[in-house]
Amino acid sequence: MKGRIVVRLPRGVKRRLQRERHRARDAALRTRIQIVLLYEAGWGAHRIAASLGCVPATAVRVVRRFLALGEEGLLDGRRDNGQMKVDDDLRQALAELVAASPEEHGWSRPTWTRELLARTLRQQTGVGVSVSTTARMLDHLGARWGMARPIVLCPWSKARKARRLRAIFKVVDHLPTREVAYFEDEVDIHLNDLRGGNIGVGDVCALDGSKVCTGSIDATENYWGCPAGPGDDACTTTSGSDIRFTPWLKNPIASDADNAHGK
After folding, report:
1. What is the pLDDT of residue 107?
2. Rg of the chain over CA atoms, in angstroms?
3. φ, ψ of residue 122 in degrees (nearest 5)
4. Longest C-alpha distance within the chain, in Å?
5. Residue ranges, the chain, pLDDT below 70
6. 3-state secondary structure the chain
7. Taking the CB of residue 33, how many other CB atoms lie within 10 A of it?
8. How many C-beta atoms lie closer than 10 Å to residue 121's C-beta?
9. Which residues pair with 238 in a beta bridge?
10. How far does CA 70 lie from the centroid of its chain?
11. How many CA atoms lie within 13 A of 106 on its CB side?
């Protein structure tokens, strides 16, 4: 069994620590200094932990680091990691993005995802943060995580869509010899909680009977209401001929659990 930890401080060191404890703005540093001073006063780890609101293991770790490294051991070991990425300026930049729409920043979608926010932050500030860090920043700002709409259809009437399609086909049919028309029909749908047990993702043909169908849909990295994924009776499903949903997420987006992928 290891013996009790004993701390003996020279008078000069003790006075210096006492002065530093009063001057320090860092609450964590003040706590570490107080742990050493209380050990020097004869207190044990459990009594110190109860007094300072920490766990005994913290008190033991702090005093052992102090005994090994001296006063240098009281400093935050992460101080040499470089400048912190997340600061008030970055939070303000994120708040301004959330208050605007993705379309105002050059993206062709009306709502933000955490991935898109992280990418836009990098573009505008030069600071790269992960999606999980972006989520913590959003939580700090009080931003609400909204559920995706189960079905999003074109708001136009069938007559208006037909008129627009006729105009497009007319342009295509009468293209000059040296010109080419390109169709953008790839759709990406990621990181959504698709619950309810009904159709989570479907192409236009499946949902409103249109004769002009959506192209391929990339619906990977979504949670389908249960770990088994589309096709299971308990899960939300897909409707359409060219919808990719593998791999899917086994846990809800907001869950802290390990989000291992499906097949």
Report:
1. 82
2. 29
3. -60, -45
4. 94
5. 1-3, 76-85, 145-153, 180, 182-188, 196-197, 202-215, 241, 253-263
6. CCCCCCCCCCHHHHHHHHHHHHHCCCHHHHHHHHHHHHHHCCCCHHHHHHHHCCCHHHHHHHHHHHHHHHHHHHCCCCCCCCCCCCCHHHHHHHHHHHHCCHHHHCCCCCCCCHHHHHHHHHHHHCCCCCHHHHHHHHHHHCCCCCCCCCCCCCCCCHHHHHHHHHHHHHHHHCCCCCCCCCCCCCEECCCCECCCCCEEEECHHHHHCCCCCCCCEECCCCECCCCCCCCCCCCCEEECCCEECCCCECCCCCCCCCCCECC
7. 23
8. 21
9. 201
10. 39
11. 4
Question: Distance (Å, rounded) from C-alpha 113 to C-alpha 107?
Answer: 11
What pLDDT is stored for residue 211 in this prediction? 46
H, E, C per residue of 8-60: CCCHHHHHHHHHHHHHCCCHHHHHHHHHHHHHHCCCCHHHHHHHHCCCHHHHH
What pLDDT score does 1 carry?
Answer: 42
* pLDDT tens per residue across span 125-155: 888 888 888 888 888 888 876 665 555 567 7
Task: Please tell me the predicted confidence (pLDDT) of residue 43.
Answer: 92
Q: Tokens 């209401």 sit at which residue?
A: 225
Please tell me the distance from the alpha carbon of residue 37 to that of residue 71, in angstroms, as a whole number: 12
User: Which residue is listed with tokens 């459990």?
Assistant: 46
The token duo for 243 is 């919808």
Identity of residue 62 = V
The token duo for 204 is 């236009």
- Residue 229 near residue 245, CB atoms below 8 Å: yes
pLDDT the model gives residue 126: 84
